[in-house]
Design a protein that fits this description.
Mean pLDDT: 83
Shape: rod-shaped
Order of helices and strands: HHHHH
Structural class: mainly alpha
Distance between the termini: 76 Å
Helix content: over 70%
Strand content: under 5%
Radius of gyration: 32 Å
Number of strands: 0
Length: about 150
């Protein structure tokens, strides 16, 4: 078997923090710092480094896509909730005669302030509407499945 060429020496200057991390990593792996540095340089210079970087970028974009999908879902829930509420309110609230309407407007400010306080409490402590909807949807699906099987 032919003898492999002798390795060549390279001197580099590293930032103390980088040197400390290199030494810690080498100690954890029970390898020499030289071996770890050689592997890192080889990885950096290898032709598949660009592919790894592209894979990391793709993974990050996938995460962002999932977040955007959840955001779109949450906005859709909010819009539908508002539409259902307005439709219900319009259908069930009769027009008031003028003296009663004035009293209702006076009371509306107080009730609105109470609503804002309650909303603030709910946002601070939860549960969030989207969690309730998910749980309710899963519960109703489970109940429907149990009813069908009985």
């Amino acid at each position: 078997m032919p003898k492999s060429p002798k390795k060549q020496r390279l001197s580099v200057y590293l930032d103390p923090a980088v040197m400390r991390r290199l030494a810690e990593h080498a100690a954890r792996r029970d390898h020499s710092r030289s071996l770890i540095a050689e592997a890192a340089i080889e990885s950096f210079l290898s032709p598949d480094a660009a592919e790894r970087q592209e894979a990391a970028t793709t993974k990050r974009l996938d995460q962002l896509d999932r977040r955007m999908t959840r955001l779109e879902r949450d906005v859709g829930i909010s819009v539908e909730m508002l539409a259902v509420f307005v439709r219900f309110w319009v259908a069930t609230t009769p027009a008031l005669p003028e003296p009663a309407a004035q009293a209702a407007r006076a009371k509306a400010g107080e009730r609105y302030d109470q609503f804002v306080v309650a909303l603030g409490r709910r946002l601070a402590k939860g549960p969030k509407l989207r969690q309730e909807i998910s749980e309710d949807s899963n519960d109703s699906i489970g109940e429907e499945g149990r009813a069908r099987s009985e």
